Amino acid sequence: MWIFFTLATTLIWGLAELFYKKGSHDNEKYSHLKVCIFVGLVMGLHAVFTLCTQDVGFKLTHIIDYLPVSLCYIGSMALSFFGIRFLEESISDPIENTSGAICSILCLLFLRQSISIYAWIAIAIIVIGILGVGFLEKKEGRRASKYGKRLAIVAFIMPFGYAIIDAIGSFLDVYYLDTEITPLRFVNEENIELVANTAYELTFALVALVLFVFMKIKKVKFELTKQKDKMLAAVCETAGQLTYVYAMSGNGAIAAPIISSVCVVSLLLSRIFLKEKLSAKQYLFITIIIVGILMLAVIEGE
């Protein structure tokens, strides 16, 4: 069954990326915050369901213990939600997926983990792809003409911000999920991952509550009937998180590179449903990034 969950995770997260884009509008000032609220709501409900149906061994102090990781993930997602209001998913998604390469470098530098020459080659390929996409985006200047130069630069920085912050969060996750050195208290090998995920979901729910109060104070319109895409994105994000656990528990070495291709699924869905069009050179560099990501995933899975 693990192969089913692996394919389901890839498809569901690809759908989530599509709905994120559809639900994010450049003329909706707080669109990215609304997405965060819906994701936090769904994740909070899932966390409550988990606590009511499973003996997780979760304690409220775990929220504080795991806070650095949770904030990195939530912060990176907020940047991503802002950026996709102005950038094609075909550009932002591959850049964001380079966070895995950055995380590998952090693990090498601070956790003394070794990286093979083949992994370095994959990382180099990814960097080349990023530089190529960045150069072409700046050269074409599509966003500057429509939204203004300052906003165009800010929007294009967002995927890179996501990649860096998400990489830091992933790096911290490697540290936190090591039962020998983890700062998480009262955990063991059997419940550490579920405890960490529950702490993350509850933190996201609390952040969503704060954002909702903020938007109420600002008197921002929040018509639920017009937020269908945001709600679907939140459901897909949480559902993918659930199937991911089962996928990795079966055969992680094969599941990991398949799930890493979620950016390819997102690209194809954006091209089909959002009618996004890019130049041949941009597709070339996007392909280079995807190849590098998949190479790295395969190498790490060996």
Give an account of the 3D structure.
The protein has 302 residues and is mainly alpha-helical. The chain has 13 helices and no strands. Helix 6 packs across helix 9 and helix 11 crosses helix 13. The chain is globular and about 50 Å long. It starts with a helix and ends with a helix. The model is unreliable at 141-145 (pLDDT under 50).
Quick structural gist:
The chain is an all-alpha fold.
Structural class estimated from helices and strands: mainly alpha
Provide the low-confidence segments as ranges.
141-145
Number of strand segments: 0
Order of helices and strands: HHHHHHHHHHHHH
Number of domains: 1
Beta-strand share of residues: under 5%
* Helix count, DSSP H or I runs of 4 or more residues: 13
Radius of gyration: 19 Å
| Mean pLDDT figure | 81
Question: Roughly how much helix do the residues carry, as a percent range?
Answer: over 70%
The general outline is globular
- Biggest β-sheet description: none
Distance between the termini: 21 Å
Which secondary structure elements does this structure contain, and how are they paired or packed?
Elements: H1 2-22, H2 31-53, H3 61-65, H4 67-83, H5 89-96, H6 99-110, H7 117-140, H8 142-147, H9 149-176, H10 192-217, H11 228-260, H12 262-273, H13 280-301
Helix pairs in contact: 1-11, 1-12, 2-4, 2-10, 2-11, 4-9, 4-10, 5-9, 5-12, 5-13, 6-9, 7-13, 11-13
